[in-house]
Predict the structure.
Amino acid sequence: MNKKNVKVILTSRPDGEATSECFSIIEEDLVDLSSGEVRIANESLSVDAAIRTMLRGEGFHMQMGIGDTVFAGGVGRIVESTVDGWDVGRAVRGPLGAQSFSKLSTEHLELLEESNLPLSVNLGILGGSTGVTAWIGIKKVARPKPGDLFVVSAAAGAVGSIAGQIAQKEGARVIGIAGGARKINHLLNDLNFESAIDYKSEDVRARLAELAPNGVNGFFDNVGGDILDAVLENLALRSRVTICGAVSQYNDMDNIHGPSSYLKLAERQSAMEGFAYFHYPEFIGPAEEELKQWLHEGSIQLAEEVIDGIEKFPQALAFMFSGGNLGKLLVKVH
Ligand code: NAP
C-alpha cells in the first residue's frame, strides 16, 4: 500500500494534566504484514479516562512506555489480510492504538457483524469500557432496587450516562452529578433522570441533602475525591457505594485524595465495593446481548462527541479531563 501510518506516541510522562507536549505525532512507512496479521484502516478510536492512568510510570491497569503508540481501543476495516476469513472490507474491533493504520494479529481482534448502525456503537453502547462496564457495574455490583434513590457521578459521560439509564431500567430513581448546564439539561431532558446536580455551580453535599432527606441508597462513582465524600455524607442506612473509577484523581495518582468521610459506611451500615468490567468475563456476552436488544428497540441512548483527525488525539484526552465531552468521546480517523 502506498500510504503512511500517522501515530501518536508518548514522549514524556505528564506531571499533572496530560498536555500535547507529552506526545509526538509521527509519520512512518507501512511495514509488511507477517503471517496471521491483518492491516486495519482505523475509523474511530475510543478516548477513555483510563488512558490517563496508563501514561504514568506505574500503571493502574497497564502502562505505556516512552516511545510507545498511545493505547486506544478502536474500530476500523481490514485493508490487507494474510488470514482466511478475515477479508478486506470486514469491520473489526480491538486495541488499535492512536494511529491511522494498525497491523495486528487476528488473535487480538474481533470481527464485527455488519448492521445499519455506525461502527462506533461498538465502542459506545456495546463497548467493553463503556456500555458493558456500565451494565456489569449496575446489574452485578451496584444492584439498585426498585424505588432506590441512586446517584451517578460523571453522569453525562460515556459510562455514567449508560449506568444511569440502566439503573432507571432496574426501577431506581436516578440523580446525576455532572459539570455545566449543557450536561444537566441532557440528563434531565434526554435521559429523564429524576434530578441532576451541577457540581461546578452547586454545593453537592447540600443539594443531595435537599433531594434525598432520608439519604441515598446507592452511588455509582466515576469521579472520587470531594464528590465521593459529598455522597458518603448523604448515605441512607444499608446503602451501597460502587467504585467504577475516580477520574478526579488520575492526573496525580501519587497523591490520591481518599474519602475522609468513610466512617459514614460504619455509621450507616453501608458497603463500598470496586470493580473492573474484566473481573466479570462471564457477564460480557450477556451484557452485550441485552445492550444490543435495548439499542435495537431504542430504549437506550448515548450521545457522541467526535473530534476529527488522529493528530488531535492528545487534545481529545485534554478535552475529557477538562470535562468537555457529553457522552462518548471519539476520535475519527478515516
Ligand atoms: P467520561 O465519563 O466519558 O469522561 C470523563 C468525565 O469525567 C468528564 O467528561 C468530566 O465530566 C468528568 N471529569 C473529568 N475530570 C474531572 C474532575 N477533575 N472532577 C470531576 N469530574 C471530572 O469517561 P469514561 O471513559 O466513560 O470513564 C468514566 C469513569 O469510568 C472513569 O472513572 C473511568 O476510569 C471509569 N471506567 C471504569 C471501568 C471499570 O471497568 N471499572 C471501565 C471503563 C471506565 P463532568 O465534568 O461533567 O463530571
About this structure: The chain has two domains: 4-124+303-332, 128-279.
